Amino acid sequence: FPVTIQPQNQVVTQLDSGYVRVSWWEGVSTRTDKDHHHDSIIHAWLLTLPGIKKIGQETFEFDLKLYTLEIISQMIYEKFFSGKEEVYEVFDPRPYQTKFSQKIPTAWNQKKYLEFLLFAKCRAGKSVMVLKHIVDSNYKLSVVCSRQKSPEGSWYNDSKRFFPTIKYISVKDPSWEVQLAYWMDRDVNIVLWGTVQSIIKRLDKISNVDFLAFDEAHIGGTADQFVQVRNTLNTRTCYISGTAHKLCWMFPEEGQKFV
After folding, report:
1. Residues 6+ apart with CB under 8 A from 224
2. Of 146, 149, 124, 106, residue with least CA distance to 236
3. Selection from 203, 202, 200 nearest residue 220 by Cα
4. 18-31 pLDDT, tens per residue?
């Protein structure tokens, strides 16, 4: 996919069937002289990188084995705009969300439990609660999966809205391995999303997982496929559901669940 740099706001876009804004920086400059061509400095720098070549006046293509658009955006940010903070909303947890944040690390710290149940009603903010736990615990790599695709939107949106340290990767992205390798070397919290079925197909490429979350666990939470994922990753596991009545028997002690 070619990359273009627009001069006004230093916009990195993907050119395919339409205009897709990926990253932009406003109110900052790449020059100290009076020249207004701020983007030319970035253009020249891009050409020093392996696997990137110019194919138009402001258009570049890159090797998909080395980069993604988000990786190139991050490289530009680190090189030219690292002094400008990204804007995120501050997550102000409700009292019950704070109680969850306080309880779940206790289960792990006591080393008594490897599994935990988050049983909360619909629209209680379960994804943002778990994402906060990921950030608070500074997990390097977390895997979030579900039997169905539908929960993905809340995980993606909440991570982008509230948590600047989280880098969200979907295993359905053809470049997910490139992204994973890149972000593993940086000080971020990686959230790797996929359906249970898609994660199983890639288990041989996923290792050193700090935390596993199974959303909508009432659908397939005890099925062979998820058991395979859980046993292979062998890490802290949080079952998440708004209708977890059929799972409660798995968590008989008060210290291993939040209801």
Report:
1. none
2. 106
3. 200
4. 545 555 555 555 65
